[in-house]
Write a structure and sequence with these properties.
The protein is an all-alpha fold. The chain has helices spanning 14-33, 41-61, 70-87, 92-115, 121-141, 173-193, 198-215, 222-244, 251-273, 276-283, 288-300, 311-315, 332-363, 370-389, 399-413, 441-481, 485-498, 504-512, 520-533, 538-550, 554-564, 578-596, 599-612, 619-624, 629-658, 688-693; strands at residues 64-66, 433-435. Helix 2 runs antiparallel to helix 16 (441-481), helix 6 packs antiparallel against helix 7 (198-215) and helix 17 packs antiparallel against helix 18 (504-512). The longest helix is centred in the middle third of the chain and has 41 residues, at 441-481. Residues 1-5, 145-149, 418-429, 569-575 and 682-695 have low confidence and may be disordered.
Length: 695
């Protein structure tokens, strides 16, 4: 039995109720404001800081709170490991994004621990129901326009515009589909296991079914993957609850369970030894299997601690070449392995398994109320569904899905009256709710210190994001005005924001401006800042090398190309930009050498350029014409300039050969201490097979 402790519970105090309301509102609003960038995390972090302040106030003034058991403390320690490793990443801005997400998950996890013992547990179901209703209504009201997203915190124009048309409140279709499907099935389970009145059952069931229907219209195939998993897990939880309640299964549940087991076995056999994977790979337009292959190759060479947050993006950039930008591993477990090393992967799997076992253990206790038992079953559904879809997508990088999973884990880790060892203590057990005031100064000090450290962190992170959050709205207002004089204000705003928020997308937006190439010194400074934020951003490197070439700073451009060149031979960079920019640099440099009278070196470079020419066919269009319209326009003028300069260089090289000029290959030697020699050690381009062998 639970020991009686004087005073109200934390969730029953005014501060606790206010914190719960603010947390629920933060979660609801995050669906429409928090994308994969940190531009909209600023107000979210402020709200989370308020939640922690209210929690601290309630703990110091209240009488009782839910005990954090060993599993909860271990989980928070694992979150601390991920947070530290995240902050140590070489990709600065992306580590800011992920660190904010990790702290948010920790707060929602503790909220789940407290919420599982709340007497207002049905309020949690009402919040989930409201979230689904808002997403469903918004899906039908405003289905797919980027221009109508301003109120959500993602400006239609500028820094944080969505990459794809939004679906419901989510900026990405797969995330919307997964949330609607998992939450819809969870709400159906709430109607079956948690709701008492008939009207509540009807309401939850109707909203849950509507969410499932809408998920099949999110332009995503994720629903076909999640629904069978949710049905299987739902049936498993139904059988477990029957056994825990002491009821006999009967012949029908046994037969259905056997059919599920046989079907699962057939599926596993087909996936391992059959053609199912090949069939799925052929219809998977997102090329997940190719991404997995390249990321898996990268993690085999990863150190124990991994490459750092989002490290998989940049470790496969020289091999994976479907899109023109880096991408997620589309597998959260593989992503964790690449980012946080094998230790991170093992910790992630251990947390999922530990909470699942904790749930099964708790369901066998007779001290659970029907509502608490139902919440555990529903949380198991959410965890299993999100864990399954995370095998094929980056679900836990979507703020609402990550935080609802963390909340569900908190519910599963929330203690019940666990019996202590020994016959005399079996009846008493360990209390799930303990007194705050009854603890000594050390206990209260530790609780207060944790909250204070959390507030300091979210405050620090919010301050680092404030500049970018403010800039996105200012930029959007200036863009909407459309006045010519506002163009210079937008340029200055982008350049000023780079000092506080070194995001490469700011440079990309800067280039979009008509004056983007009119201020080379300013652009160079922005590119250097972006590379300090992520030294492996290949796109920024090529832009900086091209800028140096246009400024006739050929040696500096050559050093950049050599320093960051990934291999010998023709690279398979997914942006296909290194050969193009290297070709352009040598083309301009060789003409300049000949013009200056250094004809021997100029001839050596010219012959190199002539041998590279066949591989440059259509390269400009393949790269520049990938996504953006301004790239396509730039490609046309760029290619015309390259063709004209190449013809002039070829004529000069033929003339120098007739005059008997001997070429000088000294430019191919290292240009800095410890630096690399020329990109290709031999004249002429190697074959693709030879290039791979020289890797």
């Amino acid at each position: 039995m639970e020991q009686q402790v004087a005073g109200k519970r934390l969730t029953e105090t005014c501060a606790g109720r206010a914190a719960s309301l603010l947390l629920a509102l933060t979660w609801l609003v995050s669906m429409g404001t928090v994308d994969t960038t940190a531009y909209s995390m600023y107000p979210t972090l402020l709200a989370l800081g308020g939640v922690m302040l209210l929690t601290l106030s309630g703990m110091l003034c209240g009488g009782r709170m839910v005990r954090l058991g060993p599993l909860a403390w271990c989980s928070l320690a694992v979150g601390g490991y991920f947070l530290v490793r995240c902050l140590c990443s070489y990709s600065v801005v992306e580590s800011w994004h992920e660190s904010s997400l990790i702290v948010s998950c920790a707060i929602f996890y503790i909220a789940g621990v407290f919420g599982a013992h709340s007497r207002n547990g049905r309020l949690l179901m009402a919040v989930l129901c409201l979230a689904l209703v808002i997403n469903i209504v918004y899906y039908f009201w405003n289905p797919a326009t980027q221009g109508m997203m301003r109120w959500t915190g993602r400006p239609a124009v500028g820094l944080a515009g969505a990459n794809t048309p939004p679906v419901a409140l989510f900026a990405y279709k797969n995330h919307a589909c997964a949330f609607l499907m998992v939450s819809g099935c969870a709400l159906l389970a709430c109607a079956w296991w948690c709701a008492r009145s008939r009207w509540a059952k009807i309401c939850y069931a109707f909203v849950g079914l509507m969410a499932i229907v809408v998920s099949f219209n999110c332009y995503s195939r994720a629903c076909y993957m999640i629904l069978p998993v949710m049905i299987l897990c739902g049936w498993f939880m139904y059988v477990v609850l029957l056994l825990c309640s002491g009821r006999r299964l009967g012949w029908l549940p046994v037969i259905i369970s056997m059919l599920f087991a046989v079907g699962l076995l057939i599926l596993l056999v087909e996936l391992v030894w059959g053609n199912a994977l090949a069939t799925i790979a052929n219809i998977d337009t997102h090329m997940r299997y190719y991404v997995w292959k390249y990321v898996f190759r990268a993690v085999l060479d990863a150190p124990v601690w991994g490459y750092g947050t989002m490290g998989a993006h940049w470790e496969i950039i020289d091999t994976f070449n479907e899109w023109a930008t880096p991408n997620m591993a589309h597998n959260e477990y593989l992503q964790a392995w690449a980012d946080y090393g094998p230790i991170g992967l093992l910790l992630m799997v251990a947390i999922i398994v530990a909470h699942s076992l904790s749930a099964l253990r708790s369901l066998g206790r007779g001290v659970l109320t029907p509502l608490h038992r139902g919440m555990i079953a529903v949380s198991m559904l959410v965890l299993s569904g999100c864990a399954a879809i995370s095998l094929a997508d980056f679900m836990w990088h979507a703020y609402p899905i990550a935080t609802i999973t963390a909340f569900s884990c908190g519910v599963l880790a929330s203690p019940v009256a666990l019996p202590a060892s020994g016959a005399e203590r079996m009846k008493q057990g360990r209390p799930a709710v303990v007194g705050v005031r009854s603890q000594g100064a050390v206990g209260k000090g530790v609780l207060a210190m944790l909250c204070l450290l959390g507030m300091v962190f979210v405050g620090w992170r919010a301050c680092s994001l404030r500049e970018a959050w403010h800039a996105q709205w200012t930029y959007d207002d200036l863009s909407a005005a459309g006045a010519d004089e506002d163009e210079s204000k937008r340029r200055n705003l982008l350049a000023r924001t780079m000092y506080r928020y070194p995001d490469s997308s700011l440079v990309d937006t800067y280039i979009l401006l008509p004056s983007g190439s009119s201020y080379p010194d300013e652009l160079e400074e922005m590119l250097v800042l972006a590379l300090e934020g992520n030294p492996k951003q290949g796109y920024m490197l090529t832009l900086l090398a091209d800028l140096y070439t246009r400024q006739e700073r050929y040696a500096e451009a050559e050093i950049i190309m050599r320093r960051f060149y990934p291999q010998q031979g023709i690279p398979e960079l997914m942006t296909r930009n290194w050969p193009l920019f290297y070709y352009n640099n040598l083309l301009s440099w060789s003409r300049n050498k000949i013009k200056e009278g250094d004809v021997s070196v100029g001839l050596s470079m010219a012959e190199y350029v002539i041998n590279m020419r066949p591989s440059m066919s259509h390269t400009v269009y393949r790269w520049f014409g990938k996504h953006r319209e301004y790239h396509k326009k730039y490609a046309t003028s760029y290619r015309m300039s390259v063709d004209a300069r190449y013809k002039a260089l070829k004529h000069d090289a033929e003339l120098l050969r007739r005059l008997g000029v001997q070429r000088d290959d000294s430019w191919m030697q290292p240009m800095e201490p410890g630096g690399k020699s020329a990109l290709y050690p031999q004249w002429g381009l190697k074959s693709k097979k030879e290039g791979k062998g020289a890797k």
